[in-house]
């Protein structure tokens, strides 16, 4: 059985719960709800749960360090389970992807995302898998207020469809590898039926 750390990024506390920047937390909450998993054990400076999928064991991790220090929590989990970077999957919001789309990526930079930046500083490099949940860019320049802004009602309504699409991608990646999952899902927008 292969073990992975599946880390969803976000900020703790009710004030941040429904913000775009918490897409990683929202994804893990959706997964936990659908798969009957709980993410409530305190460990690795985060909240932790477990999900068994086929011959995979996924450690579900919601760092509680605030976004800018996410790497501390992720590092603790990887060290505890003695896992290589290839067994880390990070779920995060992405400004450069339209809302409704979800993309997989192996490796790369942090693209200005503070959670990814923190993880890469802690781990020394970025050779891990990312499940990137598109939030789109704001029409005007200020991205900080946008990513920390509450998800508008119309997007809230369709969010479960988008997160479920991300879960389908994750399952296909675990079953058939990242290349297959990327080629099948890469141009999908989960708002389009």
Q: Which characteristics define this entry?
A:
193 residues; seven-stranded mixed sheet; 24% strand; Rossmann fold; single chain; alpha/beta
Please characterize this protein's 3D structure.
This protein is α/β, with parallel strands linked by helices. It has a single domain (2-185), classed as 3-Layer(aba) Sandwich (Rossmann fold). It has 6 helices and 7 strands. It is globular, with a radius of gyration of 15 Å.
Q: Helices and strands in order, then pairings?
A:
Layout: E1 2-8, H1 23-35, E2 39-43, E3 46-53, E4 56-63, H2 70-81, E5 88-94, E6 102-106, H3 114-123, E7 129-134, H4 143-147, H5 153-176, H6 178-185
Helix pairs in contact: 1-5, 2-3, 5-6
Proportion of residues in helical segments: 25-40%
Q: With helices defined by DSSP (H or I, 4 residues minimum), what is the helix count?
A: 6
Major sheet, described briefly? 7 strands, mixed
* Strand percentage: 15-25%
Q: Structural class, from secondary structure content? A: alpha/beta
Rounded radius of gyration (Å): 15 Å
Question: How do you describe this structure in short?
Answer:
This protein has 193 residues and is an alpha/beta fold. It is 37% helix and 24% strand.
């Amino acid at each position: 059985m292969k073990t992975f750390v599946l880390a969803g990024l976000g900020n703790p506390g009710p004030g941040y719960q429904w913000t775009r920047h918490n897409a990683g937390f929202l994804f893990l909450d959706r997964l936990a709800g659908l798969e009957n998993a709980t993410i409530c054990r305190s460990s690795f400076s985060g909240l932790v749960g477990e999900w068994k999928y086929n011959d995979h064991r996924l450690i579900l991790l919601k760092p509680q360090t605030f976004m800018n220090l996410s790497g501390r929590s992720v590092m603790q989990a990887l060290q505890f389970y003695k896992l290589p970077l290839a067994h880390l999957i990070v779920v995060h919001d992405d400004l450069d992807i339209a809302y409704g789309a979800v993309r997989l990526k192996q490796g790369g930079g942090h693209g200005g995302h503070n959670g990814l930046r923190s993880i890469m500083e802690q781990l020394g490099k970025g050779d891990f898998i990312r499940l990137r949940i598109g939030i789109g860019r704001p029409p005007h320049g200020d991205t900080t207020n946008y990513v920390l802004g509450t998800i508008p009602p119309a997007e809230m309504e369709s969010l479960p469809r988008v997160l479920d699409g991300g879960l389908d991608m994750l399952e296909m990646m675990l079953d058939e590898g990242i290349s297959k999952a990327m080629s099948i899902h890469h141009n999908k927008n989960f708002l389009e039926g």
